[in-house]
Amino acid sequence: MLDAVETAVNRPSDPSRDAREHVPLRAAVEALPPYVPGARPAAGERLWKLSSNENPYGPLPSVVAAIAEAAADANRYPDMYASELVEALAAHVGVLPEQVVVGNGSVAVLAHILAAVVDAGDEVVYPWRSFEAYPIAVSVAGGRSVMVPLARDGRLDLPAMAAAVTPRTRVLLVCTPNNPTGPAVHADELDALLAAVPSDVLVVVDEAYLEFVRDPQAPGAAADARGAGAVDVLRRHGNVVLLRTLSKAYGLAGLRVGYAVAPARIADGIRAVSTPFGVSHVAQQAALASLRPQAQAELLARVDALVAERERVVAALRAQGWDLPESQANFVWFPLGEATSERAKQARAAGVLVRPFAGDGLRVSIGEREANDAFLAVAQGWLADR
Ligand SMILES: *Cc1c(COP(=O)(O)O)cnc(C)c1O
Q1: C-alpha 119, offset from chain centre
Q2: pLDDT digits over 123-155, tens only?
Q3: Where is this region: Disordered (predicted)?
Q4: Which of 256, 341, 261, 249 is nearest to 295 (CA)?
Q5: Residues 287 and 264 in one domain
Q6: Side-by-side strand order, sheet with 361-365
Q7: Are 169 and 203 within one domain?
Q8: Has residue 193 got a pLDDT over 80?
Q9: Which of 22, 205, 304, 337 is deepest in the core (most CB within 10 A)?
Q10: Within this chain, do residues 136 and 282 fall inside the same structural domain, yes or no?
Q11: Is residue 31 part of a domain?
Q12: Nearest-atom index, ligand 1, CA of 180
């Protein structure tokens, strides 16, 4: 999702800077990793955009209608706490409304969670490589990043994360499925993590891709609880927060609606530091329309179609000879190391935008069938060219 906000940061060494400027930025801000400009098609360029894990389907007609109707009220402030949406989300998840906090995308909600619990110099433990927003959110919150390397096959190493906890640790971030590598944590692994971590350390379970998970060992994967995710884990522990979004499965990335599900007291704290009116009226109404039973059934049928596409793409890649980590999300990960940037350029030349993480690997989102076929042809070429 960060593609959309990537801009050239004004680096301190920039010769165009005015010599009269003496206002120091916070050291943590000066040290933020520079963003690689996001891959977006230039004006008029025809490219398949498989670089941002977006849902290739546009909003449902009923959702577009709700957006259009809400637009007429744009002169009014939105409902500050998005009460109607919070109630709908609470019913959707199966918790109390006071346990739900919405925000301008789940990245903003994560920033608010950290603002509520992290003091200067506190440690936040998270896997790496994982979601690129984590190191930035931690630094901006004044915290210190403790990055724990992934285990084999792009899986989170939860025992190593538990072992990385010190008296200064306030938060652990568990990204499941992990962006950009793809595997989901298993219920027993998460239980073991929570048994090992002190109960005053917050464990944030980032379930941005929850609806795409089909791993029977994932939390909440039992047949009668499909899509429940780690909500049962939340009920059993006082130090768990779930982070969710309507950007991926629900296809509302452009409207920015994310939410946290937390114990009520922690939710109060997150709400207290949240940007006032952080979710626009248009976004609230679009989210509400997406959660109506009929719309939700249609949206989840699309997710099923994307999961079927994922399985088709993964099977085709295996048949080509690729050995890749398991994906439980709407993307696949190619650990290409030093070849990564070159491969991304080749994909673009072939009409497909993918997401390179220089020197490490390349993430390719699952899109419409034609886009996936275009990418499969690219991947076949890479094998021939090794
Ligand atoms: C895409 C993504 C999000 C969601 O971001 P929004 O701000 O809700 O659009 C959160 N976490 C991870 C790991 C993601 O990949």
Answers
A1: 24
A2: 999 999 999 999 999 999 999 999 999 998 999
A3: 1-21
A4: 249
A5: yes
A6: 331-334, 361-365, 355-357
A7: yes
A8: yes
A9: 205
A10: yes
A11: no
A12: 15
